[in-house]
Every structure is written in C-alpha cells, then in structure tokens.
Fold this protein.
Amino acid sequence: MDIASQTDRPIDRWFASYSGDHRNARNQAIHVVAVPAILWSVIALLWCIPSPGTALRQGVWAALAMFAAWLFYQRASRPLGVGMAVQLVAMATLCWWLHAALGTRGLLALAVGVFVVAWIAQFIGHRIEGRKPSFFTDLVYLLIGPAWVLSKLYRRLGWRW
C-alpha cells in the first residue's frame, strides 16, 4: 500500500485529528495510562450490570459492547482490530477474575474509582495541553483514543497498522 492510499484511510484521518489535540508529551503520557484505564473501567462497569434469566451470564453486556467496539476497530484496520481484540480479551479476563475475587459490589466500586481517577487525569492532561478533549467535537473519539494508544505501541515496535 503506498503512502497516498494509506493516508486516505478513515482511521488515518481520525488519528491525525486526534494527534492534533494531543501534542504535549505529558498529555500523551497521561493518555497512554488513562485511556486504557478508562476502557477497562467501562468494561468493568458493564460487567456489573445484571443479566436477566439464567441463559445469560455475568459480563454479557460487556461482551456485547466489546464485540461492537471490536467490529469498529477491525473495520478500520485489521492489525488494530487484532491488537484491540487481544486488549479487550485481556481486560475481560481481568474483570472476570476481579469479579470472582471481589464480587459485583467490589468490582463496581473499583471500576467507579478507576473511571473517576482516569478521567480526572485526562482533564489534567488537556489542561496542560491547552486543548479541549477530542470527544467534545465528536463522540467517535471515545473509540479512537484506545486505538490511538495502541498505534503508538505499534509504531514503537515497528509494526504497521
């Protein structure tokens, strides 16, 4: 794939725009930690929603949301789709383990705490940056953030996404 066609992909345009709101090195470092923490906390919060009946198990709502998000990532880029699938499965496994160890209330309390602290960190990062968070312009950036963090890892490893 040549450079011109690669930059024509929608994911490249999303990343270029997202990167424009995240130029400060400290803000980027905060995002590398806080974005995955927020993603995990959302999965954990969804994990805590009771499922009706006996046919569905705990975590089904998280699984449905993760599958929908994965479809978005897979459609945007197969390598990112694979990486996000690995990340989502790891986060779901952590939720399963923590739910078994802490119960629903414990997992819920932990998820709420992580969610609040990570969002505070995000807003501090944007205060340092002097720019508003990207999702204020388009909610799709809430999905772009985790893939953007993963793409930074891919670049560091020399992998194409």
Remarks:
- The chain has one domain: 27-157.
- The chain is about 80% helix and 0% strand.
